[in-house]
Amino acid sequence: MMGDYDYENSSYEYLEYGDFDDSKEGYTQKEVLHIISVVVYSISFVVGTLGNGIVIWLTGFRSKQTVSSVWLLNLAVADFVFVVSLPISIDYVLRDFHWKFGQVMCKLNSFICTVNMYASVLFLTAISLDRYVSLVHLNWSQRYRTLRHAWFVCRLIWVISGLLSCPALIFRETAQVHNKVVCFNNFHDESGHVVAMRHFALVIVRTTVGFLLPFCAISISGILLAFKMRTLNSVRVSSFSRTVSAVILAFFVCWVPFHTFSVMELSMHHSLYLFHVLRIGFPLASSLAFLNGCVNPILYVLLSKKVRTMLKQSCLVFSKRSLQELSQSVSGTESVSMPTNCPAEEPTASSIV
C-alpha cells in the first residue's frame, strides 16, 4: 500500500470519482451522484441476478440444448457474474470510496468485472451474427452451425476475455489517499511516456474490442437481417424490427457513455476541468454499463412468448410438486402421531345415523 498518490502514473477508471479530493466543495453534488449510482447499482443487482438466474435455469436445466440456448446460457452466466459483484462496488461508494477488502480483492474484483464485461459484449455479438447466418446463409448454417462449434466459440470467447482482462491483475493496486484506501490503476514507471502508452493501449483495446467492433457487428447484422425479414415475411417484420431496434438501442445507450468517458480519460492528466467532468460523468456512465447486465435477459429471453409459457409451466409444476410434498409431509406427521393400540371408540348417540 502506498503512502502518497501518484497522480501522473494513475488512471481515473470507473468507481474512482471520489478518490482524489477530500475538499467539501461541491460535496452535495457528489453525494447526489453517489445516491443515484447506488440506486442504479442496486436495481441492476436485483433485476440482473433474478433475470439472469431465470435464464440460466431455463437454458441450462429446463430446455433442450441448442446452439441458441448455448449462446444465451453463456451470456446469462457472464451477465450474472457481472451484476453479482455489484455489492462490493455499492459498499465502496457508500463508504465514500474507502476500499476495505485489500489489494488481492482489488485486483480480483476488477479482473472478474472486466472478464465478464468483455464476455457479455462478445456473446451479444455472437448471438447477432449467429441469428443472421442461421436465417440468411442456410447452407453454411446447416453444415457448420453445430453444438460442438458453438461450445468451441464460447470457450474461445472466455479465453479471449480473460487475456484482455489481465491488465487488471497487473496494474490494479490500493493506495492511501487522504486517510482513505482507494483501488485504482497504477501504471507505475519512471518514464511518463511509458505510463501514457500503457494507459492509451488499455483504453484503445477496451474501446475497440469492447464496443466499436461489437457495435458495428450487431448493428450491421441486425439491419441486414431486418431487410431480409421484410422480403420473406411481412407479418412478422414489425415485431422483429422492434426487437432488433431494441437490442441495438440498449447496447448503444448502455455502453456509449462509458467508453466516451473512457477515451476522454486519456487527456485527464493535462486538464483539471476535464478531471472534474469525469468525476461527474463517470459514475452515471458506469451505472448504465452495469444496467446492461439486467437488460439482456429481458430482451433476448424473457420477452419471448415461448419462454414465458415455459416459465409459467415450470412454476406451475414446481408449485404443484411443493404442495404435494407438503401434503405428504403433513399426512406422514399425522399418521406417526396417532396411537397404534387405542381401543375403538364405542358409538355415541350423536354418531348413530
Structure explained in plain terms:
The chain is mainly α and 353 residues long. It has a single domain (10-315), classed as Rhodopsin 7-helix transmembrane proteins (Rhopdopsin 7-helix transmembrane proteins, Up-down Bundle). Helix content is 74%, strand content 4%. The protein contains 11 helices and 3 strands, in the order βαααααααββαααα. A 3-stranded antiparallel beta sheet has the order 1-3-2. A hairpin with a 2-residue loop joins strand 2 (172-177) and strand 3 (180-186). Helix 1 runs parallel beside helix 10, helix 2 packs antiparallel against helix 4 and helix 8 runs antiparallel to helix 9. It is globular, with a radius of gyration of 27 Å. The N and C termini lie far apart (89 Å). Mean pLDDT is 79; it is low at 1-10, 12-27 and 340-353.
Helices and strands, with pairings:
Layout: E1 10-11, H1 27-62, H2 67-84, H3 86-94, H4 102-136, H5 138-144, H6 147-164, H7 166-171, E2 172-177, E3 180-186, H8 192-232, H9 237-264, H10 272-302, H11 305-337
Antiparallel strand pairs: 1-3, 2-3
